[in-house]
Amino acid sequence: MGRPVSAELTGFTVGVTADRSRDALATLLEGHGARVVLAPALRIVPLADDTELRAATRACLDRPPDIVVANTSIGMRGWLEAADGWGLAEPLRGVLAEAYLVTRDPRVRGGPEHATPVEESYAEVIDHLRHRGVRGQVVAMQLPGERQPEWTAALEAAGATVIEIPVYRWAPPLDPAPLHRMVDLVTGRLVDAVTFTSAPAVNALLRAAGPSSEDVLDALRSDVLAACVGPVTAAPLRRHGVPVVAPRRARVGALVRTIIKELPPRAVSVRAGGHDLTLRGHAAVVDGVLRPLAPGPMAVLRALAAEPGRVFPRAALLRTLPRGADEHAVEMAVARLRAGLGIPRVVQTVVKRGYRLAVD
Predict the structure, then answer these.
(1) Residues in domain OmpR/PhoB-type (predicted)?
(2) What would be the CATH architecture of the domain defined by 3-42+175-266?
(3) Angle at which helices 177-187 and 213-221 pack, to 10 degrees?
(4) Annotation: CATH topology of 45-170
(5) DSSP 8-state code for residue 45
(6) Dihedral (Cα; 174, 176, 177, 179), 10-degree rounding
(7) Going along 138-267, which residue ranges are E strands?
(8) Domain 269-357 has CATH 1.10.10.10
(9) Domain spans of the chain?
(10) Nearest-angstrom CA–CA distance, 288 and 280
(11) For 216-244, how does the pLDDT look when each residue is reduced to its tens digit (9 = 90+)?
């Protein structure tokens, strides 16, 4: 049985590679009708026992920073929790309270209230500080999971002394199976979009793909939408020639709105057998009613709809099915497609030649 299309992303499947923000992102996408596949590419490991973070904390106490750049609220909490374990939390809070605080996360609190501007990206943070003037000042900069040498270099070139604060690091997921499944889904065009909220997640997906990494990139260059939270996240994909969509504001909600704007127009629509058909990811919309389809029948429908009216031999349709399938599998996929659409005559059999859409 079909159902009316009630939301913008109904019928589409979206892969989520985030760890920390996966629940919020999945909830928003599902709220707009999408089917979500979770495959965290990385996980954040707190550095409570890290010697680098401890050394950076002591550097801040020895030479209190004039400016603190806070990337995330979770990073700030992790830093203070680690300092508490070393008996340094109170002096650190005192130092931070006197600093000029710049953040990309409105949930961060600290410093004089009038001195807490919220910037959208690290590039805007750096521009803001250079415009304000940093010569002769100490800047404590929370790292977003990995070093940002270009930002450090820009502040040092403007005359600042930079203390890098490595409050967390990236590590592989505890269970790599979902990420390897995501690779298969992308290469098989079984997801319509993949979201990325960090540049390391992009690299982690390609590492997980191994010899199939070029197949992943080919899919992202053509059939699978690559949606990134911001330009820093998008950079690795753009270096590989992947067209990327990203919101102007680096926020999860804005990322979902970008997907809602970009994904539905990519759907293929045809008029066949007196019916309106729109192909949406894992489903077809027939006269406004959603008809979910299995991957095999959906692959056959995509092939037929790519050239409406053309007769496709069984051998041609066989190539759209998973490896190991035979011509009998094509007949089964066509039968399931007709049943799933609820309008059997829309897929015509041309005797001794193959199948076609009954285009108007």
Answers:
(1) 267-359
(2) 3-Layer(aba) Sandwich (3.40)
(3) 50
(4) Rossmann fold (3.40.50)
(5) E
(6) 120
(7) 138-142, 161-165, 168-171, 193-196, 225-228, 244-245
(8) yes
(9) 3-42+175-266, 45-170, 269-357
(10) 12
(11) 999 999 999 999 998 878 989 999 999 99
